[in-house]
Every structure is written in C-alpha cells, then in structure tokens.
Amino acid sequence: MIVCIAEKPSVARDIADVLGARNRKEGYIEGNGYQVTWTFGHLCTLKEPHEYSPSWKTWSLSTLPMIPPRFGIKLINDPGIEKQFRIIEGLMQKADMIINCGDAGQEGELIQRWVMQKAGAKCPVRRLWISSLTEEAIREGFSNLKDQSEFQSLYEAGLSRAIGDWTLGMNATRLYTLKYGQNKQVLSIGRVQTPTLALIVKRQQEIEHFIPKQYWELKTVYRDTLFSAIVRKSDEELAEEAEREKENPNAKKKAPSADANRGIPQITDEKTGQELLERVRQAPFCITEISSKKGTEAPPRLFDLTSLQVECNRKFSYSADMTLQLIQSLYEKKVATYPRVDTTFLSDDIYPKCPKILEGLKSYTQLTAPLAGKPLVKSKKVFDNSKVTDHHAIIPTGVQPQGLSDMETHVFDLIARRFIAVFYPDCKFSTTTVIGKADEIEFKVTGKQILEPGWKVIFAKDTKDMPEEQKDNDDEKALPAFTKGESGPHEPALYEKWTQPPRPYTEATLLRAMETAGKLVDNDELRDALKENGIGRPSTRAAIIETLFKRHYIRKERKNLIATPTGVELIQLIHEELLKSAELTGIWEKKLREIEKKSYDAGTFLTELKQMVTDIVYSVLRDNSNRHVTVAQDFQTPPATKKENTAKTRTRSSKTRTKAKPAPALKPASLPSDDSIIGKACPLCGKGIIIKGKTAYGCSQWKNGCTFRLPFAQEA
To answer: Is 180 a catalytic residue?
Structure first.
C-alpha cells in the first residue's frame, strides 16, 4: 500500500480524488492502492527545555545558556493531534512506500519529515512537488515524483531555522526576562521579531526627534501653468546621492551634464524669498528651453507574497496576516498558485500554459480578447529560469473562481489583472520639460502625455477610483503648446513650507523594510539584490508582525504601526547588535538560504549560532546597570499564558491560529453607520478592517475574537 501524507484535510481530499481513492476512513481516505492521510500543520515540535534537563525547568540565570547536546522532537500536546498521529503512525508502519505531499516549501518539508521520523517510517519515500492544486497539476506531479533525497538540503535549512529560533528564543527570552523584566512580565526575544521591532522603534525615534525646518518655494503662473523655481541640490543631498551610488554600484547612472545642479540655493529665510519675489515680479517671463522625451513603461511585475501583501495593505488596508490567509484560501480553492514565494518571475515551462490560463479567466474576457489567437509576448522581465528556484510568481491557475468572498475577490482581481497585463504592450508616453526665466531666475514645469496606454488599460478602473489629489500630479498633466522665446506677464508667489519627518511604518512599508534588511527602496532590481539579506521569509513575516501585536510591543493607529513603551524600552536596553540589527540578522537569514542551496554547511551554521548565543548571555550577565522595562498592558491581544510559548515565535506553523479573548465592546456612536466605513481600520482591535454583514458592520478579525459591531442605520 502507498501512503500519501498531505498538510491538511482539504488538500488530502483533492489528492485522493485524483488518485481514485474514495473509501473514507477515520483519519484517511483509501482506494486504488493508496491511503491518503493528513496533518494539521505541525504535529511535532522541538522538545521543551526541561525535557532535556530537569535543571532547565526553573527559570534561572545560572542555567544559561541552555544548549542541548542533541535536539529532539515530540508530539504537540493536543488530543486531536495525538489521535491523528497514531492513525498516521499505523499507516506508515505498514506502508510499502510513502509519498510526501506536504506544502512544497521549507516549512512543509519540515512538518512531514518530523512526522515520518516520529512515526519510525522505514520504507522508501517519494516527494510530490507542485505549485497549484488543480487536477492537471496534481496528475502532472504524480507522474514526476522525485526522490526524498533531492530535498535533504531543504529539510536541513528548515531544521537549522527551527533550532536557531529555539536556541536564541529560549535563551534570550529567559535572559532578558530575568535580568530586566518585572512583575513576572515575560520579555520575548526572537531572531526575526526583535530586529523587526527595532526597525519600528528606530523610525519612531526619528519622528520624535525630528526638528522641522522652515523654507520657502518660489513659483509663478504663466499661461495658466504653474512653474517652480529650480533649486540647486545642497552639499548634503549630493553626499547622500554619492552614498547611494556607492551602496548600489550596479544601478544605472545618469550621464552627468554641465548644468546638472543648476538653480538658486534653497530659500531658508523669508527676507531672501521676498527679495527674489520682487525681482521676478518686475521682469517678464520668457520661455528659454523646451524638451520632449519619449519613453516606455513596462507592465508591473507579477506578485510574490510580499508585494501582494504590500498592495493589499495599500489598497484595501488588509493586514499582512489577513492577505496570507486570503491567498492561501485562493490556492486551496485551486484558483491561484502556491502563495509562499519570493520571486516575481515565471519559469519558461509555464509559457506554453499561459494561453489556456488566460482563456480560463472568463470574467476578464474584455481584457483577454485582444490577446486571443496571437503569440503571447515573452519578456525576460517575466520569464527567467535563473530567477525561479522552487516556485514561480503568484498567478491564476485558469480555473474559474466560484463562491469567493468579497475580500477573496479583491485579492484574486489583483492577481488576475497583473497576469493579463504582462502580455500587453508597454505604455508609451512623452515627457515634456519647459524651462522659463524671469530676471535670470529659472523656473521649470514637467508634463506627461500618454501616447499609447498599452497595459495601463488593464488598471483603468484604479485610476477612475483614485483620489483627486493623486490624479492632479504635475508630472501627469499635459502642458499647453509653448514656443521657445515667447514671453509675457506672469503671477509669481512665495509659499511657506516646512520639512516633514519620516512617515511611521505601515504594514506595507514594514514588509518592504523586512524584505530588504531595513533599506526602503523603490527600484525593483536593487530590491531583488537586497532580498538575499532580508529578515524572515515571505511566509513568516505576517506571523512576526502578529507576534509583535500579541506581545504588546506595537499597536496600530489607523494604518500606522506604533511601538508601545514596553517595545521602545526593550530595544533601548538591548546592546547586542546581532539581536536587533536588521542587516546582521539578514546575513544570518542568507546563510539559511545558502544551506537550502547546498552552498553552506548546516553544521557550521549551528556552531556559529551556539557561540553567538553564548556570547550574548555572558555579555548581558556582565551588565550591572539595574535597568528594567516598564510593563505596558494593551487591550488588543491577551497576554501569553505560558512562559515557554513566548519564546517560540516560529516552532508552530503560521497556519495554526490562536483565538483572542473577546475585547470589551466599543461605543460606536461616533462612526457613521453607512457603507463609507467599509474597508477602514477597526477602531476596536486596530488589526482588522470593517466589513459588511447581513444586519450590521463588523470586523474582519471576528474569527479571532474581535467583538466590534455597528448595526445598520434604521431607515426613516
């Protein structure tokens, strides 16, 4: 008998249907020579400290560092898990072959390997590796089963990650709690959560310590067009540019021109501004230069998980965790491909399947019709084998969606439109720059004219729904026809301005910062390079942000993430850069990826890890400052109930949800009870968004315990 083991019951049912197994038993499905069973995410976890040594049961500084000579696994203490494991164990003991049908990623590999180890499986093991759950993909996967040994490095990377999180989390959490905590408050430290918190705290302190500076802008209106005085870059700005170029030597550099830094110095006092204003007021305005440059803009890249979470947060205010749940649901409903990916490219073997996928998008016929019957564009910006490892970018499968919720529909729409857009031509535009002069002071205006919209027609509805202030971007405006040498009257004015502090992190910008080790960049190529040193993995970043909420280290104000006093003080007392530096943690993360690629040794990684934890312990023990962290309770999430659980930021699958305790009801009188509040942040928990039910508005986090409810307004 061949035993197939999937990661959840719904996936097992899909696989059983394809294999012809129809006989349902308790804990598995049998038929046609197969027994298809399942886990519920993680069934096993690393052992607790006291299970290695009785002396580690008591929290004591004298027992640190705790480094077991050999790590062991155990069943998670849950009756349902224990019951299902005994069924799996019985099947595996009698199996002729096992097919690992776990999620095709590092965590999925670890989940099933631990179960097979715990069950004492001895028979040969094959691996099913698929990127979608359609019948076609499952059949293709079973016809190309791989040997388990091909995924040994994937397992070693996952195991190293789990051991790393246990070793650092358990030791650092006990160390900081005993040394700096008070009132039995656990201070949770994690390999990824702590540098992520440090990013938020650093940004918050930059905002708090920001001193705004006053400056003035000189502008003038000529022929109903607003021109701005050209301002020379300061020495500080030039130095910053040089530093950015040094950090990214591969970036495309603009050819330097003789007047690259032309213009007046920045106006920093009103008297100088008034003098300049009077000068230009007395002189006519003359057009001195007109230049037009044609350009093209390629379609936006396909989605990886992070960019999808960023876009959903930006457009719909969905949290990273909510987006992950939604795209996971779309994957299980067979309408989208595997979501836990960090590439925006497709492999060449997907290209022949694309016409059929487009044909399956029945709701988008108007957009796919122009592509039908023609060879599809095959761009290197989309299809590149060298940029794809285990899985390709998130795309539709071509299966017609049915029964999707409104939120799932929103996410699917983003994915479908991106996919269609990559086969459309580039957008062609013309950028016109006009320079004028009044008493030797130069002014400039830039306008953009779309010549051929190309792929932009796919997103026309987005532009229609865009706020007016975004539509009025100067660069997007078409300009009147100016003639070089023309002149005439104009209306100059002086505008008072203040420098602005950096913006607080939102979930969207925090995800980008985690992806690029704290460096916020817009350039796609540079972002790809920095991904190597990103902190966390696409599949776990949402859970890390949720952990920071759960620990009361951060809270949400509208879309902004704000560190609590506890979070701020915790980061301030950590002097060990390895614990809080996104860059250093990113280097560690890179080594884990290299283990997966077989270019770094797992044993070396674990040796370095143990030495690092030992050094941190002795460094903190030498601190005699007698500092303590203030405990700030927060109503958003319940406190941890078990000390050990606070250290385990990643030993359980992010798919396992813990329900929050119901929060006190909010008086919603200040909110309008109409559809204008849909999509706004929940005023009670701050994590969900407001959705519409049958009789009232509620929070999207209602399954996790949020009790916000606002009845519909009664019609007169």
So the answer is: no
